[in-house]
Specification:
The complex is a heterotrimer.
Chain A: E1 3-9, E2 12-18, H1 24-31, E3 50-53, E4 56-59, E5 72-74, H2 88-95, H3 105-117, H4 124-130, H5 142-155
Helix pairs in contact in A: 2-5, 3-5
Chain B: H1 12-16, E1 32-38, E2 44-50, H2 52-56, E3 60-65, E4 99-100, E5 106-112, H3 115-123, E6 126-131, H4 138-142, E7 155-163, H5 168-172, E8 177-186, E9 189-190, E10 198-204, E11 207-212, H6 217-228, E12 235-239, H7 255-264, E13 270-273, H8 276-281, E14 285-286, E15 288-298, E16 303-315, H9 323-329, H10 332-335, E17 341-350, H11 364-382, H12 386-393, H13 413-424, H14 426-432, E18 440-452, E19 462-469, E20 475-479, H15 488-500, E21 507-509, E22 513-514, H16 529-556, E23 563-565, E24 568-570, E25 576-579, H17 580-589, E26 598-604, E27 610-622, E28 627-638, H18 645-664, E29 697-700, H19 723-735, H20 746-755
Parallel strand pairs in B: 1-13, 11-12, 16-17, 20-21, 28-29
Antiparallel strand pairs in B: 1-5, 2-4, 2-6, 3-5, 7-17, 8-15, 9-14, 10-11, 10-13, 12-22, 15-16, 18-27, 19-20, 19-26, 23-24, 24-25, 27-28
Helix pairs in contact in B: 6-7, 9-11, 11-19, 15-16, 16-17, 18-19
Chain C: E1 6-9, H1 13-22, E2 26-29, H2 35-40, E3 48-51, E4 61-64, E5 67-70, H3 76-81, H4 83-88, H5 90-96, H6 102-107, H7 110-115, H8 122-129, E6 133-138, E7 141-146, H9 147-150, E8 151-153, E9 156-157, E10 164-170, H10 172-175, E11 179-185, E12 196-204, E13 211-219, E14 226-227, H11 229-235, H12 242-251, H13 266-287
Helix pairs in contact in C: 5-8, 12-13
Classes of the chains: A alpha+beta, B alpha+beta, C alpha+beta.
Chain lengths: 156, 759, 294
């Protein structure tokens, strides 16, 4: 079973041959080599596989690849500008030491990007809610919240 | 100076750009997939396995069962090997086992072209068992048939120690004391590394190569060699970036099985990746323990004697075995000193639960919960100031453990306590909260800890480092110590820069450990690497620096080069003689005397030192709903010199977060009839989300520890240790109720509140 | 990779109805946050999936003659952010915002939340207290039923072969002048399933001293979401005071029937039912502008 879908991945139009049984995680990792998309539970409980679909955060593990048809998908590989410059969110994560083992980091960077792109202001408590779909075992979320706050304040 | 500076993590860029590769990101295309069949009983014997249907599934390559594996038992603990047989870890499992010892034991493995086929084929394997009653509790196991023939009554080991030369009872004879007694219970918990253990194995150049998510690559190499009965040099283990370990990956997990399966298939590349559910049940858990404490206290608050009895639930296999409860037991005297006698007895019991091994703190979170909750109970019953009681009895600077000689070379515990108390306005609030009514109450609590840094002299401590000078005057640093997320590579880089005089930006550490390349180190465990491996980096750096200086002197035909700073070779007056890059370039391409400048050093560590600290916490509890909210929490650590404050804070935050959940929510639960876990997934097992996590404060009291390479001592594990008892003590302050069992789930809180008639 | 044997993508309701009529064992998939997980856990071997996520007629939230029509493919995020919902029935936004975490709320649909027939569904107890009507479409046309009649037993709802949920209707008279609150009691503040959920919706007398009407719903109060009709009847028209609240708290115990599981005992869940109903009622009354006299 093979199906060809068209979608935009990190800003580039792509035609991808998929197996309709595969998840978006499978497609991004195995077909496109976008290994920043991490597998932590495969049932939508940890958020490690989060990607942006048309600007919103989704767990790519519980999203079929075929549903990505005509959608625009962003992974962490797509956050860096063409000349290799880090996005404000990526910079903030480095500056605030929000990265430890790094396994939850890609998913959180994307949700943080969605938050920053929203153009809205949020309190720290609201940010806690907005990142609550990501489990992190290294940081206690302290520096992650600091980083998201920092990126948000810089941008908006 | 790079020590003490907030230098960004060396791996941060790669991790925020998605370029950091973890084992599963490197798997070659076309790799076969192995999936393990787990037993659906907790205790019994596999009589027969019918794999015929599974083998017929298109895409299934092979099915191996517990009847096919070599008759070799091997140990799995991430301990250095010992050439003395008396010190060997217990070897009690085969690659697959016919004797089933926990619900989920490994009994067969399917290899298929893809994951889906392997998973579907597993369902077609028919297993016939001889089933025995599951022995899940320590009591049942001690009264049941042996799970391992060599250990009657399922007692893996039972040990005693005494300090003072007299027993607890004898100590009471001529002393006017009050006796206090408590029984504590701490749960089975799981590490919840974000990256599930996974590996892939293949044969190349006559070797088995295993790429794996492990804390202990060099130990994995040795154990694969043992399990497969092949020379250790024929095994090459590569550890790329790993997504957390917390001790679960301080065990050899499925790497030997993965290697064996590849070998059986002629060296084809085979991947073995655990699901999250397997991550919970089939890796390791933290030991559940029951701890009984009896103490005799004089009127002026001095501990005269204590008697502690501990039982540790090992689960089905020995793993780290008795050493975890032993680690806990030895803290009894490293936290408080009894005036006359300390009697401690500790027993490890096999049961039909998932295997317990190392987890952040190695037994110390368990015993510290009991010791510090007990201390609070004593203070309350004696109407004694809870901080004073601790100060009177806690070990002081200069303490040397009477049994294993581990010293507290520097001890700023007193100051840690004062900083924590001041942060919360603890003394005043503690008094104020002691008499409250209503169902919304507040409480403050504290706890202290002592924690040894490395494992010397209990076990071998050794670490190596290699440095190589590049043509441009930069250096490569190779260590066997492993980066697992804690920031080891960053502090090693800082250390190398500090010692060699070559600036931080020119120090390139090799993050992936490859046992064929990186020198030997036991790996990431205890809180040893910054201390033990740090010494190796220091020693190696000094050697490299001397070689550079020697070559500079050769080039200058003099003896004036004495130091390197900021990449310049300096004379004794600090004048720049030559740039390191010039020395480097000449050393490579000198027509008469080319010389590849490199250094390698092993630090055979024969020191250890104790790290100290406290947690102070303020909570609010809703007695009717049994919900605890943390209003303010601070850890204050005496970890000697802090190498990198920002990464150090990160370690503390994560450790405290684990401690908070240990106190309030985490508990792996099992069906009492079958031994199957109820909540072995991230939904049922409650690690905190961002909405469950309070803002966390931390302070360091820095005092140079003379035994540390840069004055530093343990920090990786300690932050988690004092948190749970502090929270429990805060709840005690709020309610006056002694909660002696964690986690403090809403129902546990409510039931006691109701029993005591508080609402 | 999911073990999907066959998947059909329906584009219209009638297309879906036809497929469901012809395929007895078809399993509907919308957001996928339940079905894909079940598939992964091997609970739907050989299932034929009917994908309805592209059916336009089943998307969106509308207001018709001030009746609120929520189409079942509306995600939790869409509901929470929708102005019609926020202005008229904010308690539903509050309820769906307690589901999982943001990513799950972006994919999970309210239709799936109801149709999987699970007692802990966060939207269900609130919809019970909004007297939601469900439009079911089948081969013989449509029929409307009250949500309380839709639930039959654990994971069993009133959908006959060929039928699917096509609308959730909240009539003007069901929400106008009502103020409500939903409280999810769980072990975590996100990414969790309710140990118990309590929804209360009330309408006060003009002078705000009496409970003109009250509706009390529970998730995990029993095997399926439920309403406490007897308690509600007893409370109707009564003066608002602490005694009334205590009385209601006691009375709901006659109507809930939770069980013991590893997550919580029956006794604790009963205690919660009493305590939550009181607290949630208080909050609902306060939102309605009422005041609880001591």
């Amino acid at each position: 079973m093979i199906e060809i879908i068209k979608c935009k991945i990190n800003g580039r139009d792509q035609e991808i041959a998929i197996d309709p049984r595969e998840s978006l995680t499978d497609m991004l990792r195995n077909k496109l080599g976008l290994t920043s998309v991490k597998k932590g539970c495969e049932v939508g409980e940890c958020g490690a596989c989060t990607v942006l679909i048309d600007g919103k955060s989704y767990n790519s593990c519980i999203y079929l690849a075929s549903w990505a048809k005509d959608k625009s998908i962003i992974t962490v590989e797509g956050l860096t500008s063409e000349n290799g410059e880090l996005s404000p969110v990526q910079k903030a994560f480095i500056d605030e030491s929000a990265v430890q083992c790094g396994f939850c980091t890609p998913g959180l960077l994307l949700t943080a990007t969605e938050i920053v792109n929203s153009g809205q202001k949020y309190t720290r408590e609201e940010l806690r809610t907005l990142i609550s779909g990501h489990l992190c075992r290294c940081t206690g979320y302290e520096n992650i919240l600091n980083a998201v706050e920092k990126a948000l304040n810089q941008e908006n | 100076m790079t020590i003490g500076k907030n230098i960004p993590r060396v791996d941060a860029f790669d991790k925020v750009t998605g370029r950091a590769k973890y084992a599963d990101d490197l798997v070659p295309t076309g790799t076969l997939i192995a999936k393990v069949l787990h037993s659906t009983i907790a205790n019994g014997l596999v009589k027969k396995i019918d794999t015929s249907k599974a083998k017929q599934v298109p895409g299934v390559i092979e099915v191996f069962t517990c009847f096919d594996v070599p008759d070799i038992v091997f140990p799995t603990a991430g301990h250095p090997w010992s050439t003395n047989i008396a010190n060997h870890d217990i070897a009690d499992r085969k690659l697959l086992n016919t004797r089933v010892r926990y619900y989920g034991d490994d009994i067969a493995v399917v290899v298929a072209e893809n994951e889906l086929t392997a998973t579907e084929a597993l369902k077609l394997i028919e297993v016939e068992y001889e089933e025995y009653t599951p022995l899940l509790t320590i009591e049942d196991a001690m009264n049941g048939d042996a799970l391992h023939e060599e250990y009657p009554n399922n007692i893996l080991a039972s040990t005693k120690y005494n300090v003072g030369g007299v027993s607890f009872e004898e100590a009471l004879e001529n002393n006017d004391v009050k006796i206090f007694e408590d029984e504590f219970e701490v749960p089975t918990v799981q590490h919840c590394f974000m990256e599930n253990p996974n590996s892939y194995a293949y044969m190349e150049s006559g070797k088995i190569v295993v790429v794996t998510s492990t804390q202990i690559p060099h130990i994995v190499r040795r154990v694969i060699g043992q399990a497969l009965d092949i020379p250790w040099g024929q095994v090459r283990v590569i550890k790329p970036y790993i997504g957390g370990g917390f001790g679960a990956k301080q065990d050899v997990l499925y790497e030997p099985l993965n290697a064996w399966v590849s070998k059986m298939l002629g060296g084809k590349c085979v991947k073995l990746e655990l699901t999250r559910e397997e991550g919970f049940i089939n890796t390791r858990v933290r030991h559940a323990m029951k701890i009984h404490i009896k103490s005799a206290v004089s009127e002026n608050g001095r501990l005269i004697a204590r008697k502690v009895k501990m039982f540790s639930n090992q689960g089905g296999y020995a793993s780290h075995g008795h050493s975890v409860v032993a680690g806990a037991a030895h803290v009894v005297k490293q936290l408080y000193q009894d005036e006359v006698a300390t009697d401690v007895e500790f027993t490890t019991v096999f049961t039909n639960l998932p295997v317990a091994g190392a987890m952040r703190g190695y037994g110390v979170p368990q015993i510290t919960f009991a010791l510090e909750a007990h201390m609070e109970n004593v203070a309350k019953e004696m109407n004694f100031d809870n901080i004073e009681l601790r100060k009177i009895n806690m070990i002081k600077e200069g303490f040397v453990d009477p049994l294993n000689s581990i010293p507290s070379l520097t001890n700023e515990l007193d100051q840690c306590i004062e900083i924590g108390a001041k942060h919360l306005n603890f003394r005043e609030k503690h008094k104020k909260y002691s008499n409250q009514e209503g169902h919304i109450r507040k409480g403050v609590g504290c706890a202290i800890f002592s924690y040894k840094t490395g494992v010397y002299p209990i076990s071998l401590e050794t670490a190596s480092c290699r440095m190589i000078l590049n043509q441009d005057g930069s250096i490569q640093v190779q260590v066997g110590a492993t980066e697992i997320g804690q920031g080891a590579d960053t502090v090693f880089t800082q250390m190398a820069a500090e010692i060699t005089g070559i600036t931080y930006d020119k120090v390139y550490i090799m993050s992936a450990q490859d046992t064929d390349v990186t020198p030997y180190d036991s790996g990431a465990y205890a809180s040893r690497q910054t201390y033990v491996s740090g010494h190796a980096v220091k020693k190696c750096g000094l050697e490299l620096k001397q070689k550079i200086l020697d070559y500079a002197n050769y080039l200058k035909e003099s003896e004036i080069a004495v130091d390197i700073k900021e990449n310049h070779v300096l004379d004794k007056d600090g004048n720049k003689i030559i740039h390191v890059s010039e020395v480097a370039l000449e050393s490579f391409y000198h027509r008469e005397n080319s010389k590849h400048i490199a250094a390698e050093a092993t630090h055979h560590c024969d020191t250890n030192t104790i790290s100290h600290g406290t947690t102070f916490v303020e909570i609010e509890v809703d007695l009717k709903l049994g919900l605890v909210k943390i209003l303010d929490i601070i850890n204050v650590h005496d970890s000697g010199t802090i190498i990198n404050p920002k990464t150090a804070l990160g370690q503390v935050h994560g450790g405290m977060s684990m401690g908070i959940a240990y106190a309030l929510s985490e508990e792996l639960l099992f069906n009492p009839k079958t031994g199957e876990a109820y909540n072995g997934d991230l939904l049922g097992y409650k690690i905190p989300t961002s909405l469950d996590s309070p803002d966390i404060s931390c302070k360091f009291v820095e005092k140079y520890d003379p035994s540390g390479p840069f004055g530093n001592k343990a920090l990786g594990e300690p932050p988690t240790v004092p948190v749970a008892p502090a929270i429990r003590n805060a709840l005690f302050n709020a309610t006056g109720i002694k909660y002696n069992q964690i986690p403090l789930t809403p129902e546990r809180i409510f039931n006691k509140v109701k029993d005591k008639g508080l609402i | 990779m999911y073990n999907i044997k066959k998947m059909y993508n329906a584009e219209t309701i009638s297309d879906a109805v036809k497929f469901l009529t012809d395929n007895e064992d078809a399993k509907i998939i919308a957001g996928g946050s339940d079905v894909l997980i079940e598939l992964r856990h091997g609970k739907l071997p050989n299932a034929t999936l009917l994908n309805i996520r592209d059916i336009k007629e089943m998307q969106g939230i509308e207001l018709i003659n001030e009746d609120i029509i929520i189409k079942p493919l509306s995600t939790f995020t869409e509901i929470a952010e929708n102005q019609i919902i926020q202005e008229r029935i904010p308690m539903l936004a509050e309820a769906v915002n307690t589901v999982g975490g943001p990513q799950v709320r972006n994919i999970g649909t309210i239709g799936g939340n109801i149709c999987n027939g699970i007692t802990s569904a966060d939207s269900a107890s609130t919809l019970f207290t909004l007297d939601a009507e469900l439009e079911i479409t089948g081969p013989d046309g449509t029929r409307n039923i009250h949500i309380k009649d839709f639930y039959i037993w654990v994971a069993e709802v009133d959908l006959k072969q060929g039928e699917l949920l096509t609308k959730i209707i909240i009539k003007k008279e069901s929400y106008e002048n009502y103020f409500g609150h939903y409280y999810k009691y769980a072990k975590r503040n996100a990414m969790d399933i309710a140990i118990q959920g309590c929804a209360v919706n009330c309408k006060l007398s003009d002078d705000k001293t009496k409970l003109e009407n009250v509706r009390i719903g529970f998730g995990v109060g029993g095997p399926i979401p439920l309403r406490c009709f007897e308690t509600e009847n007893k409370a109707k028209g009564k003066l608002i005071n602490n005694e009334l609240i205590d009385e209601i708290g006691k009375s709901v115990l006659e109507e809930v029937n939770p069980r013991t599981s590893w997550k919580a005992t029956k006794e604790f869940r009963l205690h919660l039912a009493q305590e939550l109903s009181k607290r949630v009622l208080r909050e609902a009354i306060e939102r309605a502008g009422g005041h609880i006299n001591d």
